[in-house]
């Protein structure tokens, strides 16, 4: 039977909304000038869900331009954790099935990964832009021999406008990833906070370059 891609995408977006509204149980694990990272045990798999929150010095439109999950988007250029991103199937004008590959990381302890996700993009009434994703299977994406297949559980980003501050955006992001393979938990637990800090730092550089 065909997967209900739209239903799965909407379910992931609902989870994002729940995470956004639920302040309880998060434990801080890393803070930089750009982001504060916290985590709590995931309800979806035997790992953690990570929450990144920071203010990006750019308009919500510019931030969204840099992070939106689209073919030939800017993200592959600035996000060191995204090597390649392709849209496998456009399900509707807001939902698509995408394949992302990541380079080796953490001094090559983490080998290249591939992820197949259904992604939903939408704009909320308050002007917030949201992308939400979760892992799916797709007939055009059998596992590739040179990659370990990882799995994203409901994850995504909110670009939230700040009233009266058109050139600043609150970026709230949730990462919930089973990297797959046989990685020591200590490696996984150190990788994500560092990776999220890098994501915010590189995004800040990317929006500055976009405006330049």
From TrEMBL:
Task: Give the matching PROSITE patterns.
Answer: START
Classification via Pfam families: START (PF01852)
Q: Has UniProt tagged this entry with the keyword Transport?
A: yes
What is a GO molecular function of this protein? cholesterol transfer activity
Q: Which SUPFAM superfamilies does this chain map to?
A: Bet v1-like (SSF55961)
An example Gene Ontology biological process: cholesterol import
Q: Which UniProt keywords apply?
A: Lipid transport, Lipid-binding, Transport
Going by the entry's taxonomy, the superkingdom of the source organism is recorded as Eukaryota
| Domain START residue range list | 25-212
- Alphabetical list of Gene3D superfamilies matching this protein: 3.30.530.20
Q: Does the keyword Transport apply?
A: yes
- Check the record and name the PANTHER family matching this protein: PROTEIN CBG07384, STAR-RELATED LIPID TRANSFER PROTEIN 5
Summary of the function given for this chain in its UniProt record: May be involved in the intracellular transport of sterols or other lipids. May bind cholesterol or other sterols.
The molecule here is called: STAR5 protein
Native organism? Nyctibius bracteatus
